[in-house]
Structures are given as structure tokens and as C-alpha cells.
Amino acid sequence: MSNTLRSILAATFYEKVQNKQSFVLNVLASWCSDCTEQQVNIQAFFNLMAENQLEVLQLTAQKEKGIYIDADHQTLIEALGGHGYPRTVLVLNGKVVSSDHVEVISESDLTKLAETFGNLL
Questions:
Q1: For residue 2, what pLDDT is reported?
Q2: What CATH number should be reported for the domain holding residue 82?
Q3: How many domains does the chain have?
Q4: I need a surface site. Which of 22, 65, 89, 106 has the fewest CB within 10 A?
Q5: Is 1 within a domain?
Q6: Range(s) of the domain holding residue 78
Q7: Peptide bond into 86 cis (omega under 30)
Q8: Which residues fall within 8 angstroms of residue 31, CB to CB, at 6 or more apart?
Q9: Is 114 exposed, middle or buried (CB count within 10 Å of its CB: 0-12, 13-18, 19+)?
Q10: Residue 63: beta bridge partners?
Q11: CA-closest candidate to residue 27, choices 64, 67, 95, 80
Q12: In contact, 58 and 32? CB cutoff 8 Å
């Protein structure tokens, strides 16, 4: 497992799901100020997830507000609950088990989310 956050595209998400992998997906939008603020605090969350052997991956859904990177990204985001960024998603054994964590930004809120995800393992 890498010790740095890795950015992926929608195709990689689908590949990991098909291979029944477990991971956390953090969905961002380049224009989103909450996403930028979250990035200041994301390393602590990343470290807690690593303790649980869960890789944290990041996917940028939009570079411009309302315009998805491509149709695959739009389909994925809609399947995960629609827009609302940042969105943090837990995938266990290829199944999305928790996708409604939107605008979890502060270090303390991210720590609580890590605990929530840890309890679902």
C-alpha cells in the first residue's frame, strides 16, 4: 500500500470494484472550496485508514462547476449519490457500503469518519 494519496479515474474505480477490492474513495471537484479545505486535513484520515489496511484514493469529478470530466465520471458520481463535494465513500470487497459522507472537512470530523469506517470493517 502506498504512503501517498493516489488520484484515479472512474475506470480505475470500476476495475477495483470488479476485482472485489476494499478501499476508500474521496471524490473532489477542482472548483470546490470545501474540497481544498479538506485537503489540508486529509493526511490524518489517510493515516488512520492505512492502519485499517484501506487505501484512500481520490477522484476529481469536475474541474468546472457542473461539468463532469466525462460521461463515466458523471455516471459514477450519480451512482454514489450525486454531486456534493467532497464525498467520502467506503467500498468493501467491491461493494459500496457507505457513500453519504459529504462535506466532511475538518480533521476532527475526518477522524470520526475514520472511526465509523473502521467499525464497518
A1: 64
A2: 3.40.30.10
A3: 1
A4: 65
A5: no
A6: 6-120
A7: yes
A8: 62, 63, 64, 65
A9: buried
A10: none
A11: 80
A12: no
pLDDT value of position 5: 87
Q: Output the tens digit of pLDDT for each of the chain's 121 residues.
A: 666 789 999 999 999 999 999 999 999 999 999 999 999 999 999 999 999 999 999 999 999 999 999 999 999 999 999 989 999 999 999 999 999 999 999 999 999 999 999 999 9
Specify if 90 maps to a domain: yes
How far is 92 from 96, CA to CA, in rounded Å? 6
Residue with cell 488520484: 7
The secondary structure of the chain as a DSSP string is: --SS-EEE-HHHHHHHHHTT--EEEEEEETT-HHHHHHHHHHHHHHHHHHHTT-EEEEEEEEEETTEESSHHHHHHHHHTTSS-SSEEEEEETTEEEEEEEES--SHHHHHHHHHHHHHH-
- Closest alpha carbon to 13 in 49, 60, 47, 81: 60
